[in-house]
Write a structure and sequence with these properties.
2 copies of one chain form a homodimer. Helix content of chain A is 48%, strand content 19%. With 211 residues, chain A is an alpha/beta fold. Chain A has one domain (4-210): Aldolase class I (TIM Barrel, Alpha-Beta Barrel), CATH 3.20.20.70. Chain A is globular and about 45 Å long. The interface between A and B is large, with 40 and 40 residues.
């Protein structure tokens, strides 16, 4: 099983489809964010879903009524999962998780977010479990926080972004309890995306073997 | 000056344009959210901008790199402002405010969000001011919180959603310091949207006069 998720943070339809096709054997899923969807239209989710399962990284953070609408549109376009914030409360998460598989952000990879997340992530994890989220986001840039979050929710999968361009390492993420690592720029901005992806998969495998 | 902002939470292009056109004399701006944009495409922002200034209520809540991309796409499509969350930190807000006018969510209208926001809104308001946000969101459903937020940031405009369908009252919002009220379903789901909008504008005017 591959444990690499491609963060497809491009803004051009053709380039996005090409890179997804090129990497399909190396990745478990494709994570798309708003810049791609707003630039090309929501149909890109349908098209990418033919290549690999798509996670809509929409960091949904609204009232339940709006969260539910966004989740439904993602679902109708073929998304297999959606990423949602926990700050809006249990009902807002449930508005997503009642529509499709929902992944809650337990912590973010950027420095500035620590101010709130490090104080509040325990509560977010509780809310996420309570609202039937299937997975959590915890960043590879703060690998010790992955272990902390895993200790709170050993039964929930952890997806770790921040590998590569943001400075995190796949091996550190896996060692600390991540189930999947999310990599974007380090792969698709390289001259040889397949080789980089294979290298990351190799690093993940050897970390798991030596664990 | 009108102080009513239309929350255009429809999902159909024609209906959205029709209602915006119908109400243009009664409203200061049009607030669009992701359900409309994902259903019809980002061009709707351009089209609505010809009728009234558009606020992209994207509740942006990502790392600075991604926030900046989303803000740029909103700007390129004619949006006059974007709504962003503060809990990602100052740099994430600045990634928006360096591109276009940015409005930060100080508090949300739904019950479940109180858990987090009532503890942290003071810090969020500080970050918003520091990051040069031009306005704050504070809900009419919790009117006493508007006064609290206004007291922290008297120089920053306050926009209050939650009027109508969510139970808040325009007069309470204005009395407590809101500069604009945001109304959606109560207007466009009515049989006579113009009359309802005029009624809300009248309520706002008489509240301001009697203050």
């Amino acid at each position: 099983m591959k444990r690499l998720i491609l963060a497809l943070d491009l803004e051009e339809r053709g380039a996005a489809l090409d890179i997804a096709e090129l990497l399909k054997e190396e990745i478990a899923a494709i994570k798309v964010n708003y810049p791609l969807v707003l630039s090309t239209g929501m149909e890109i989710v349908k098209e990418l879903s033919k290549i690999r399962p798509v996670i809509c990284d929409f960091k949904v953070a609204d009232i339940p009524y709006t969260n539910g609408k966004i989740a439904r549109i993602a679902y109708e376009n073929g998304a297999k999962a959606i990423i949602c914030h926990g700050f809006m409360g249990k009902e807002s998460i449930e508005a997503c998780s009642s529509v499709l598989a929902t992944i809650v952000v337990a912590e973010m990879s950027n420095e500035g977010s620590g101010d709130f997340f490090e104080k509040y992530s325990q509560r977010i994890v509780e809310l996420a479990i309570d609202a039937k989220a299937i997975a959590l986001i915890a960043p590879a840039t703060k690998a010790e926080r992955i272990a902390y979050i895993k200790s709170m929710a050993p039964e929930v999968k952890i997806l770790s972004p921040g590998v590569g361009a943001q400075g995190g390492r796949a091996s550190d993420a896996i060692k600390n309890g991540a189930d999947f690592v999310i990599v974007g720029r380090a792969i698709y901005n390289s001259n040889d995306p397949v080789t980089i992806a294979k290298k990351i998969n190799g690093e993940i495998e050897s970390t798991l073997t030596s664990a």
